[in-house]
Amino acid sequence: MADEKKFAGYICTGCGIGDRLDASQLEMIATREGKMQSCKQHEMLCSAEGVQMIRDDIADVGATHIMIAACSRRAKVEAFNFTDVAMSRANLREGVIWVRPDAPEHQETTQEMADDYIRMACAEVKYMTKPSGSSEQQLNRNILVVGGGITGMTAAIEAATAGYPVHLVEKTGALGGHAANYYKSIPTRSPYADPQDTGVEKMIADIEANDLITVYLNSSITKTDGAPGRFSVDLATESGSTTNLSIGAIIQATGFNLYDPSNLSQFNYANSADIITNEEMEKLAKEANGGPIKRPSDGKPVTAVAFVQNVGQNSKADGQLPYHNGIGDLIAIKQALYLKELNGDDCDTTIFFDNLRTPGAAGEDFYRSGQQKMVTFTKGNVGEVVPGSTLEVKFKDLILNEDTSMQADLVVLDVGMVPNTGPDPYAQLAYEETEDEVEKAKLKAELDVAPPSILNLDYRQGTDLPHLRYGFTDSHFICFPYETRRTGIYAAGPQRRPMDMRQAADDAAGAAMKAIQAAENAGQGRAAHPRVGDLSYPSFRKEGCTQCKRCTVECPFGAINEDEQKYPQFNEARCRRCGTCMGACPVRVISFENYSIDTVGQQLKNVDMPEEFDEKPRILVLACENDAYPALDQASMNGTEINPWARIIPVRCLGSVSLSWITDALNSGYDGIVLMGCQKGDDYQCHFVRGSAIAHERMSKVGDTLQSLNLEPERVEVYEVAITDVTRAPKLINDMAETVERIGLSPFKF
Amino acid sequence: MSDLNKVMIEKYRTSFLREVEANVEEGEWVKMCMQCGVCAGSCPLGKHWDHPPQEIFMMIRAGKRDEVLTSDSMWMCTSCYNCIARCPRGLPITHIMHGLAVYSKRLGLAPQKQPTAEFSQIFWDNLMKKGRVNELKLGLSLYFKDGFGQGVKNAMANQKLGQNMMKAKRMNPMEFFGGHGVKDTSGLQKMIKKAQEIEDAKVQGKG
Predict the structure, then answer these.
(1) Residue A399's closest chain B neighbor by CA?
(2) Contact between residue A90 and residue A73 where contact means Cβ atoms under 8 Å apart
(3) Which of A375, A617, A698, B63 lies in disulfide reach of A336, CB 3.0 to 4.6 Å?
(4) Which of B59, B79, B111 is the last residue before a domain boundary?
(5) Would you place residue A179 in the very low, low, confident or very high pLDDT band (cuts 50, 70, 90)?
C-alpha cells in the first residue's frame, strides 16, 4: 500500500475561476490527459470544508499525489499545507483569469491557458515524491562562538539565555576584545548627551557566572568539519593541548583590526609619542583612572587636543581603506567630551573634519551635545602634523579657504576598521582559473599576503567564509544579513561591515537567533533560509555521474565535497536547496524528491503545442520563485495583462535551470523562451547569492544551441528581474510575444 | 581703539567665541552652527557680503576677532529672515547678525561710512527726538548726510516722488516744523538712557 501512488486532482471554482473557465473541461483534462484517478471541483477549495475534503481523501482513499488547481502557489499556503503528500499547484487565478481580459473574443485563448496549466501541474506531480527528509539529521544544540569581543560575548549570552550551551573561543588570554581597553562608549540611551560606561566588565562577569557558557582562552580552531547539526571542531590551545567539540551551529565574531597609519608620513604617527590613534586615546583615558589625561611623552596633563578625522579611509590611494568606518566622528566627539570632563572645560578640543558623519540614534543629539559643551568643529583638511614639544597641526580651513595651523599637545588620528577575517576561499580558485598573466600575478600577490585561516573548514571550496569586498564577509545586508555562504555559520559584528558596539551587540543577537534556528532546522532535516522547512535534498545517480565536479565547484554554499573517487558528497544540512547543482549537472543525474529535471521538463513537454497553421505561438517563461514569480503575481493582482501565449513555470533559482530544458523546449516547438532571475554582481539580490550569476554565465552559451538548431538568437532572453519590477516583468513576456510575431513561429512544430 | 575694546581684548584673550557668547545677543548659538551653508545659499544679498553668516560663525570660532568685528557683512543683513526659516539647526541667524553689528558698534569697530550703519544711526536719532519717526526729517537727514551740495542733488533727484507723496497725502510738509510725538518725550528719553546705562554696565562686567 505504502508505495502505491494515488493521484487526485482538485479544481477550485471560486474567485471567479468557475465563471471565467469551463471547469468541467478542466476536470476532463485532469483525468484523461493528466491521468488523475479522481478529480473534484469545489466552489471554495481553501475554505475549511474544501480543505477537509482533501484531507479526507488523503486519509480515506489514500491519495498520495495531489494536484490543486486554484490560485498561485504563493497564495493560501496555510490552507493547502499537506505535508504528508506530494503536491503541485496549477495557477488558474493569478496565472490565467487575472491576466486575461474578460471578453468573448479572448475566451478561447484563456481556456487554453488554463488547460495547459492543468496539464503542467498534473505532469509535475507525477514526477514528484513526498520529501522524506535526510538521514543525516541530528539535533545538536551546542553553539560555537568564535571571538570573545563585544559581538562574541553578546552572542554567547544571547544563545545561553535562550537555553543553548555555548562554547566561546578566544585567541587571546582575556575576554573583552578591543572594548576591554575603552574608557567610555558612545551613548546608547536618551538624551545621548554624554559618553557612557562600556559595560564590558559586567558582560565578562556574566559569562564567567553562566553555567551554559564554556570559555576557551588562548585557543584557535585547527579544523572544522561536517555540517550544521554535526560540526566537528578541533580546538588547539597555546600550550599544545587539543579538544574536539561537537557543534550544532557556528557564529563567527572575529571583529576587526585597526588600520596602521605608520605609512602616512604626513601624520608622523611613528615619530611622536603624542600622535596617537583613536584606540590609543581610549587606553590613555582608561589609564588616567578618573584623573586628568596625560601626554604620553612627558606625562603633563593635556590642554589642547586636535582630532584628525578620516585618516587613511575613504580614499582611492594605494594602501588606504577605500571605505569609511562611519563611526569615527562619533568616537572623536566622545573622546573630546571626556577630555573636557577629565581635564576641565578649559581643555581645548578641536575636531578637524571634512564630512562629519554621526549616524544612528545617538548621532545628531551627540553632535549637538559636543557643540554645546564647546568642542570646536573645524571643517578643514589636515595636511601635516609636525612633531615637537608641542605639535603643530597644519590644515586648510575649508570654510575660510586659507592655510593655517594650530598648536596642540596631543593629536588623535581617526583610523578605520579592517575586517579580521580568514582568506577568501575563492581567491585561490580565481588564481588557478585565470589565464591572463598580469591578472594572475596580481592575484598571486594578494594570496601571498592573505591572512591565516580562522575556521579551517575542511570544505571542497576553501577554509573560510567567502568575502564580498575589502575582506568583509559576504552576506545579503538587506534581506538576510547574518547568513553567510556557508550554511550554519553566521557572521556578526565588524567583520561584516564597520560598526560600533551597540550595532555589534544587535548584530550578535541576530546571529545568535539564526544559529539557534540553524541547529534546530538541522535537527529536523529542514532547510535553512530561504527555503526554510524544505525537507527535500539533492541526491544523485552514481552510475550516471561522470565525476566532472561541476556541482562541487558551482554550489554557492560549498555544500558538496568530493570523496576519494571524486564523486560528489552531498552534505544535506549545508544545502540550501537552490538546485544550482542540478542545473550544473551535464548528465542530469542530480535531483530533489520534489524538484527535478523531470518535474520541470515534463511540465514544458505537456503543454499542448498548437500546429503551425493555428498561428498560436507558445512562450516558455522560467521565473525565479523568489523575485520574478512574486512580481508576476503582483502584476496580475494589479490587473496587468500577460500575453496568452505565455506558459510560466516557477523555478527555485535561475541557477537550477538545466540547459536540457531549453533544448527540450526549442525542440518541442516553443517559439520563445524568457528566463527571469535576480540581480547578480556585487549588489546581487539572488537569494542563493551566486545562482543567478551562474545561470547568466551558462545561458551565454545557449547561442551555440540555437545556432545548431538554426534558430534566431532573440528567441531566448535572460533577464535580471527584481521583486519590485511589477510592470517590467509582464512587459518582458509581452515583448517576447512581439519578437515572435516579428521573426515568425518556430519551425520545430510537429 | 575704544577703552571698552581694550577691556574686552584683555578679558577674552583666548576665546573670541566666549566673548561673543557673553556679549552678543543670541551669541550662545554660534557654536551650534554645523557649517552646512544653507544660510549662505538662502541670503538674497549673499553675493554682496564679504563673509556669509556660516563663514562669520567659523571666523568667530577660529578667533578672528578683528576681521569679524570690523567686517561690514553683518551690516548687510536686511532682516528678510530667510536664513532663520531655513537653518536646520534652528539658529536665530538674523538676530545674531544684528547682535554682532550692535556689539561692533559699541566697541567702536564698525566700519566707517557703512550706509546701513549710518542709516541706523540717523533712524535712531530721529526716533529719540520725539519717540516717533518723523519720516520727512528722516528722509531729509538721509539726503543731506553727505553735505549740503549732495543733499540738494539727492532732493532734486527725488523731487517727483516727494510731490506725488504729498498729493497722495502720504507725507505732510508741516511735519518739518516740530512734527508729532509721544505724550511724554522726556520720560521716554530718560527711560532709554537708563536702559543704556544698565546695558553698558553689564557689558563691562559691572552689572
Answers:
(1) B55
(2) no
(3) A375
(4) B111
(5) very high
Reference A90, options A119, A112, A52; nearest CA is A119
Residue A361: pLDDT band (50, 70, 90) is: confident
> Rounded to an integer, what distance in angstroms lies between the CA atom of residue B85 and that of residue A204?
51
Indicate the pLDDT class of residue B8, thresholds 50, 70 and 90. low
Residues B90 and B20 in one domain: yes
Q: At residue A449, what are phi and psi to the nearest 5 degrees?
A: -105, 10
Residue A743 to residues A577, A622, A708, A750, B127: CA-CA distances in angstroms? 38, 21, 18, 19, 89
**CATH value at residue B65:** 1.10.1060.10
A355 touches chain B (CB under 8 A): no
Rg (CA), chain B: 20
CA atoms within 13 A on the CB side of A85: 28
Q: Which of A398, A399, A401 should be substituted to probe chain B, the one whose Cβ sees the most B Cβ atoms within 10 Å?
A: A399
**B162 domain-assigned:** yes
> Mean pLDDT across the stretch A528-553?
91
For residue A530, say if its preceding peptide bond is cis, omega within 30 degrees of 0.
Answer: yes
* Chain A residues within an 8 Å CB radius of B34: 356, 367, 371, 377
Distance from CA of A644 to the nearest CA of B (A): 55
| Residue B190, domain member (yes or no) | yes
Of A252, A231, A168, nearest to A483 by C-alpha is A252
State whether B31 and B90 are in the same domain.
yes
Q: Residue A257 is which amino acid?
A: N
B67 and B98, same domain (yes or no): yes
Residues of chain A neighbouring B61 (CB-CB closer than 8 A): 376-378
Complex ipTM > 0.85: no
- Please tell me the number of Cα atoms within 13 Å of B15 on its side-chain side: 17
**All 3 cell numbers of residue A494?**
565588524
Residues B53 and B10 in one domain: yes
- A-proximal residues of B, 15-74, CB under 8 Å: 17, 31-32, 34-35, 54-55, 58-59, 61-62, 64
- Residue B206's pLDDT is 45
CATH tag for A609-750 (out of 3.40.50, 2.60.40, 1.20.950, 3.30.70): 3.40.50
Does the pLDDT value for residue B205 go beyond 80?
no
Burial class (CB in 10 A: 0-12, 13-18, 19+), A580: buried
**Tens digits of residue pLDDT in B53-85:** 999 999 998 888 999 999 999 999 999 999 999
Asked if the structure places residue B160 within a domain, the reply is yes
**Pick from A701, A615, A709: which is nearest to A657 by CA?**
A701
Residues A418-458 have pLDDT tens digits of: 999 999 998 887 888 888 899 999 888 888 888 999 999 99
Instruction: Locate A718 and state its grid cell.
Output: 535572460
Q: For residue B140, give its domain range.
A: 115-197
Task: Work out the number of other CB atoms within 10 angstroms of the CB of residue A174.
Answer: 11
Q: Is A372 on the interface with B (CB under 8 A)?
A: yes
Nearest-by-CA chain A residue for B59: A400
What is the separation, in whole angstroms, between the first and last Cα of chain A? 41
> What are the start and end residues of each CATH 3.50.50.60 domain in chain A?
143-255+420-424+450-523, 259-273+305-415
In a domain, B207, yes or no: no
User: What is the Cα–Cα distance from A349 to A335, expressed in whole angstroms?
Assistant: 9
- List residues bridging with B57 in a β-sheet: none
A113 strand-pairing partners: none
Give domain A259-273+305-415's CATH superfamily: FAD/NAD(P)-binding domain (3.50.50.60)
Contact status, residue B128 vs residue B192, Cβ threshold 8 Å: yes
Q: Do B55 and A371 touch (CB under 8 A)?
A: no
- Cβ of A374 within 8 Å of Cβ of B31? The answer is yes
Query: How buried is B204 (Cβ within 10 angstroms: 0-12 exposed, 13-18 middle, 19+ buried)?
Result: middle
Mean pLDDT across chain A? 93
